[in-house]
UniProtKB/TrEMBL annotation:
Residues 54-75, 332-356 are annotated as: Disordered. The lineage of its organism: Eukaryota, Metazoa, Spiralia, Lophotrochozoa, Mollusca. GO terms for molecular function: mRNA binding. Keywords: Coiled coil, Nucleus. It is found in: Nucleus. Residues 333-343 have a biased composition (Acidic residues). This is THO complex subunit 5 homolog. Residues 215-245 form a coiled coil. The keyword Signal does not apply. It comes from the Eukaryota. InterPro entries: THO_Thoc5. Belongs to the THOC5 family. One of its GO terms (biological process) is mRNA export from nucleus.
């Protein structure tokens, strides 16, 4: 700013000199104008002096040595007013010069004079500005010095406050100090004065002095502890002696164990010779201790039934015993919330690679379908050499028992058949052992919600992995669940409480409850397994003969039929439910629920001359306990079914309803063959008594049966009933 002011003054001076030179060469203005301008300039200066007449005089009278001293000695308010007056003068001068140039362009001399006065005022303003800067710097120095003194005082105050706070903390610490004697649990005052000797308690002194009382109590506590320490040392020495004695006896027992094992090993040949496998039974019982409760009940009840009723049963335990031992201390509980567990897994260590959704779903599925490491194997043998092997598993998360089935046949006795090749398959052999028990759904209704919660499919999708959860498997293991269908036939011998509630009580009560459920069904289930195995084996033999066109009849069965039957079985093959579904005359059986999709369906073709009879034979899974069903149609001249020929309906009734006449005692193994033989016999009667065929010449179907009366009643019913004693056919009453 200072440099700019000097330059500005210098430029004004140079311009003033140039203007003066120029004016001397030009013509002078008129005298009247010069006097006017001079009078105005004098008036302007007079106004400045009039505004502050004594300011310049007083400041000029003082002649300080330096400008800094001058700045301190001068009055700031007077300088401010002088600065404002100079500013006002400069404003009025500039305005005056502007008006002179506008009114009188040739007044250069007057303008130069006015400009000189303005320059003087400008220099005066510069000086005032410089003095103001000196004054401001001085004030700043004074302010900094005052601030420094204040900071020193504030620092001293902070030090004093810190010392006061430190002293307060020390005082608080001293006030809160606790001695070690306060942590010692001393006897009560009454007990102290009662048991402590007077030399220690000194009641005359201690009762009046709390400090002496505490010292006496501490002294008595010390004496008591010394006595207890001596007693503890004596007890420890006695304990060491007893421990050494126990260890010596234990060493003796340890040396005795190998000797006993050697003795048992030496008796193995005797056990094998006498058929008393005590060692094997002992090992099995040790394994049984690690079975889950349902399999334990199944194993114990089956073993008891084997010893009491069925020596041909074989029961064993297979699996990893060590893994089962590790599970004994772990309570398996499925996740309460699969979403929260997945969040927990995803919030794991950031350095660990996160699992994909497929891996997480696979882990959840394996956890839900996890089997117990131990399983029970039951082998049911039959007289013909066939063996039914059942392996029972326990699913810990679902709380159900599943079974895998395997059939072992004697190669020398095995029968090969095309139409019945799947009769011994694991999926069909135990189907409907009890009514409506297909093993496709879990008997535990809670499993449906468990699968749904984890986003898994239903149990039929996992049957190849876990086996089939038949209802009778649950009963054998002592498990009992509410039935989905109130009308569904269940176990008729359930006489104990709900097995599921027994999980919440002790093991002893649970075992008793489960044993009651298991024992009530064990005998019936084993009997049904044997019957099923025997029935399927006999059925295989019958199907093998039928495929060759031979109806296998026993010697007793031959007596129930005429000596000669002209109809011949020309074909026997497997059929399907869809084939039966396409038959119009089979609708009545399907709608009545007699024919179901799970049934085994075969087709028999019978010929006699040009007549051809096709019979669809429906066998249930419980055949022959449930008699086979025959659906018949005859192709002779026209297609005849039960819908357009009442005699065919009578033929079906004769075969399907009156099957009990074909049973031999309690055995039903020959029922299918006997029904087929009766079907052929009735087919002969149908053809030989047909009135339309009798009118044909020549006669294609000759009458060879002894039929006293060919028809009866308004329906013209045929005599399908055969009387073996007389060898004739008659009508049913």
């Amino acid at each position: 700013k200072r440099l700019f002011s000097v330059k500005f003054v210098f430029v004004l001076s140079v311009n003033s000199i140039r203007q003066s030179t120029k004016m001397s060469k030009e013509e002078t203005l008129d005298g009247k104008k010069k006097r006017l301008l001079k009078g105005e300039l004098t008036a302007s200066l007079g106004d400045v002096k009039k505004y502050k007449p004594d300011l310049i005089t007083r400041q000029e009278s003082q002649t300080p040595s330096t400008e800094e001293d001058e700045a301190l000695q001068r009055d700031p308010q007077a300088d401010l007013q002088s600065f404002q007056a100079s500013c006002d003068f400069l404003k009025s001068t500039i305005k005056e010069i502007k008006e002179m140039k506008k009114m009188h362009p040739d007044t250069s001399a007057e303008i130069s004079s006015i400009r000189t006065d303005a320059t003087i005022h400008f220099i005066h303003m510069k000086k005032l500005n410089r003095l103001a800067h000196f004054r401001c710097r001085k004030v700043r120095d004074i302010t900094n010095e005052a601030k420094y003194k204040i900071d020193q005082c504030h620092l001293q105050l902070q030090n004093l406050l810190y010392e006061a706070m430190h002293l307060e903390k020390e005082i608080t610490k001293c006030m809160e100090f606790k001695s070690k004697d306060e942590e010692i649990e001393l006897v009560s005052l009454e007990e102290f004065y009662k048991k402590a000797p007077k030399t220690v308690s000194n009641p005359e002194v201690t009762k009046g002095d709390v400090h002496q009382q505490m010292l006496a109590r501490l002294e008595w506590e010390l004496e008591q502890r010394k006595q207890l320490a001596a007693k503890l040392t004596e007890t420890k020495s006695e304990k060491e002696k007893i421990t050494q004695e126990i260890q010596s006896k234990q060493d003796y027992l340890d040396t005795l164990q190998p000797k006993l094992a050697a003795i048992l090993q030496a008796t193995r040949p005797v056990q094998d010779y006498l058929d008393m496998p005590y060692d094997i039974i002992k090992e099995e019982h040790q394994k049984a201790q690690h079975l889950p409760l349902p399999l334990y009940v199944l194993y114990m009840q089956t073993s008891a039934y084997k010893e009491a009723c069925d020596k041909y049963l074989k029961i064993s335990i297979v699996g990893d015993v060590d893994a089962a031992k590790s599970l004994m201390s772990i309570t398996f509980e499925p996740d309460e919330d699969s979403d929260s567990d997945q969040d927990e897994r995803e919030k794991g260590d950031s350095k660990r690679r996160r699992k994909s959704s497929e891996a997480i779903n696979l882990e959840i599925k394996n956890k839900v379908l996890k089997k117990h490491p131990l399983s029970v194997v039951l082998e049911v043998s039959s007289k013909d050499g066939a063996e039914l092997q059942l392996t029972f598993f326990y699913l810990m998360a679902l709380n159900i028992i599943t079974v895998n089935v395997h059939v072992n046949q004697d190669p020398g006795v095995a029968v090969s058949t095309i139409s019945g090749g799947d009769l011994l398959s694991p999926d069909l052999i135990l189907d409907e052992l009890y009514p409506n028990d297909h093993g496709n759904d879990s008997p535990n209704v809670a499993n449906h919600f468990e699968f749904k919660r984890h986003g898994l499919q239903e149990i039929p999708s996992y049957i190849p992995v876990i086996g089939r959860p038949y209802l009778w498997c649950q009963w054998m293991g002592g498990l009992q669940f509410l039935s989905k269908d109130l009308n569904k036939e269940g176990n008729a011998n359930r006489d104990d409480g709900d097995g599921e509630s027994s999980f919440n009580v002790s093991r002893i009560v649970a075992v008793k409850s489960r044993h009651g459920i298991s024992s009530a069904n064990m005998q019936k289930t084993i009997h049904l397994l044997r019957e099923r195995m025997k029935a399927r084996t006999c059925l295989l033999h019958v199907l093998s003969s039928l495929e060759r066109g031979i109806i296998p009849l026993s010697a007793e069965s031959v007596k129930m039929f005429p000596a000669k039957i002209n109809a011949q079985l020309s074909a026997w093959r497997r059929s399907t439910f869809q084939d039966v579904l396409s038959l119009p005359h089979a609708d009545r059986f399907i709608k009545a629920g007699v024919i179901r999709e799970s049934d085994l369906i075969f087709m028999a073709v019978v010929d006699r001359g040009s007549a051809k009879m096709t019979a669809h034979v429906v066998l249930t899974a419980d055949c022959p306990r449930v008699a086979p069903l025959f659906v018949v149609d005859i192709l002779w001249q026209t297609l005849r079914t039960a819908l357009n020929d009442v005699h065919i309906m009578e033929l079906e009734e004769e075969v399907n309803l009156h099957f009990r006449e074909l049973l031999q005692g309690k055995s039903r193994d020959q029922l299918l063959a006997n029904q087929l033989q009766r079907l052929l016999m009735c087919f002969d009667v149908y053809l030989e008594t047909d009135t339309r065929a009798c009118s044909l010449v020549p006669v294609e179907i000759p009458k060879e049966k002894m039929i006293p009366r060919t028809c009866r009643g308004p329906a013209r019913s045929k005599p399908y009933k055969f009387v073996p004693e007389l060898g004739i056919f008659t009508h049913r009453c």
